[in-house]
Amino acid sequence: MAEKTILIKDDSKFLFFVGGLLQKMERSGYKVFLEDMGGYGDFLNHFPDIQLKNKQTVFDLIINLSRKPQPVKKDELNLVIENSGLKFSIDDLFDQIEKSLSVQDFKDKNLLITAGPTAEDIDPVRFLTNRSTGKMGIALARTAFIRGANIKLILGPGPVVVPPYLNVIKVRSAAEMHEAVLKEFDACNYYFSSAAVADYTPVKQLAHKMKKGKGNLNLEMERTKDILQDVGALKKIDQTIIGFSVETENLIENSRQKLIRKNLDVIIANNPSIKGAGFGGDTNQVEIITKNNHSTLPMLTKIETAEKILDYLLNAEK
């Protein structure tokens, strides 16, 4: 594939931001030019591969980093980022650059993704949750956005940072996630159930803090509604459901049984006891399982894992 050329027009002079962007650009394989190298002092000495614009080059993408609105020429592929150092992180901007230059093989596809844990309240102070952070679901959302998809991300509670370009529906409990999924499911082409949803919730949620007693605590729990079971029953012929399975033993067998029982098309399974594949990290090692086959992916970053999952889905449609 031919090297992509990018021109950066920058009157913002957010040096800390531009510096981080240029670092990513140098590692990306893009050929990067600046319209004007003035005003940076010795700053650009750190980026010897960045070149000054010349008249001969036709650019695949022009990035306007500006403190004020910039005119966009209709015959150019432009990405206009105003007040860039304040509104976007480096990764957010780079996702937008990647989208501008991508093949867009998920263009016009509607993806519904759940991510993160749920929190089941006991009283106003205490709640039950799990180790999920939502990183895998957000990696899927980011990757699909770059490839042109329309994203709705239903996200449970947690500290994970979400790119501002994503359409996020925030929920807290398993019941709230169930309600949100069923409301949005009919409009999606792909449903990714990557959230770690609680199987049980307290029968009673106390209005006031529970006082400590002398003996042991017996907390009565009831089953939550099974989101995957319910959407599996609603699935139409043009919809694909991708479940996620966390197993510490009999990974393939247990995950395939879940796939069949819940009418899923694909299930992504991993064993969190494997080093690098646990909750909260930036890597994962997964199995892509269908009714009759499975593919083993190596240990990858979660973004790379998301790319492989999307590739698999596209190839399965051919």
Task: Give an account of the 3D structure.
The chain has helices at residues 15-28, 84-87, 90-101, 135-146, 174-184, 227-234, 251-261, 302-317; strands spanning 5-10, 31-34, 51-52, 61-66, 78-82, 110-115, 120-121, 127-128, 150-155, 168-170, 190-193, 200-202, 221-223, 240-246, 266-270, 283-284, 287-289, 294-296, 300-301. The protein is an alpha/beta fold. The protein folds into two domains: 5-101, Rossmann fold, CATH 3.40.50; 110-205 and 215-317, Rossmann fold (3-Layer(aba) Sandwich). The strands form five sheets. An eight-stranded mixed β-sheet has the order 10-9-6-11-14-15-17-18, with helices on both faces. α4 crosses α8 (302-317). The radius of gyration is 23 Å and the shape is globular. It starts with a strand and ends with a helix.
CATH superfamily of the largest domain: CoaB-like
As residue ranges, the low-confidence spans are: none
- Secondary structure: helix percent: 25-40%
Write the H/E string, N to C. EHEEEEHHEEEHEEHEEEHEHEEEEEH
Number of strands: 19
CATH class of the largest domain: Alpha Beta
How do the strands of the widest beta sheet line up side by side?
A: 10-9-6-11-14-15-17-18
Write the CATH fold name of the largest domain: Rossmann fold
CATH architecture of the largest domain: 3-Layer(aba) Sandwich
Which value, in Å, is the CA radius of gyration?
Answer: 23 Å
Structural class: alpha/beta
Q: Give the percentage of residues in beta strands.
A: 15-25%
Number of helices: 8
